[in-house]
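Q: How do we represent a protein-ligand complex in a form that can be generated token by token?
A: Start from the inputs.
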Amino acid sequence: EKDGHDWFMRKEIHEQPHAVADSLLGRRTPEGLLHLDEMRLTDQELRSIDKIIIIACGTSFYAGMVAKYAIEHWTRTPCEVELASEFRYRDPILTPSTLVVAISQSGETADTLQAIRHARTQHSRVLAICNTNGSTIPRESDAVIYTHAGPEIGVASTKGFLTQLVACYLLALYLAQVKGTLYGDEIGNVLDQLHEMPDHIQRVLDGEQQVYDLAKEHTGSRSVLFLGRHAGYPVALEGALKLKELAYLHAEGFAAGELKHGPIALIEQDLPVLCVVPPQGRDQLREKMISGIQEVRARGARTICLVEDGDEAIAPYADVLIRLPKVPVLLQPLVAVVPLQLFACELATLMGHDVDQPRNLAKSVTVE
Ligand code: M6R
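Then emit the structure tokens for the protein with 5-amino-5-deoxy-1-O-phosphono-D-mannitol bound:
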């Protein structure tokens, strides 16, 4: 049942190329238009949307953070992302022209469910991104985009996350198509790039031994930091969450630009800092990231940098370089998070923890 792997989580990490491909399947009409099966909201309804609020918890929340970059960039519609547990307690401004997007792998998370119920009382439209057919959240939503990850058994979400990202990109492109904020061939180009992602993810998986060796060197670490910018920031947060959940280690993710506003005080000799470097071509972002890496290294940190293949500028400041396939910045989370999943899975295994059933956690959290 684990296909020769020691943990469901490791199996599920390796299923990601497939899960991403399946989640992209059948989304294009013969005319080359993007088509979403259970969209159910009419083009007219979608055109009237003037604000999007994404609500989710945990890893799904980080998928929502990535979605915000894609939605605002491609559709020019304001988009907020909020933790489901905070949402309804602040009396959010919701109208019939607000689209609330609930992201939930299980479809049963109580915080997220209560948040959509609240949104519906305010007559907002609700769209669910969900991996579990017929679960409560999609049943109570106006529209659904199902991810096709297959059942996710490991408590730590992996293929659930990657397929949520795919669904978020598809939603953003679909809105851009309906609203006319992108041309057909621009949408086609991104879809082509998405279809290349399973191969890219496979290449990252093929390099897993490097990450396993790295994990071996860090079994004695007491704390690990993660840095990212733009779409790499939620990846940093997700890398940290995986380590907390599985290795019970203190781990924190930061937006790299925030370092100098406080967190840099945490840096001490040999502290591991994993840095998600934006791809080349986004040079403003990348250069700022590089200077952040220089800063922490000058203070003794051990810098482990995830960088695009062929990017040599980081090499002088990196103790370890993990190479990522060349992909656009908005899609980079699909490849950048994979080494972080492998790292947490391996480190927890080496520390003797139960990776599939971490202490104190449940797969779906059905209490608020
Ligand atoms: O089923 P959901 O996507 O609604 O679950 C949300 C979180 O509980 C979940 O992502 C949690 O953070 C995972 N254990 C992360 O690995």
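Residues 57-60, 104-106, 109, 112, 155-157, 245, 364-365 surround 5-amino-5-deoxy-1-O-phosphono-D-mannitol (CB under 6 Å). Residues 184-206 form the longest helix (23 residues).
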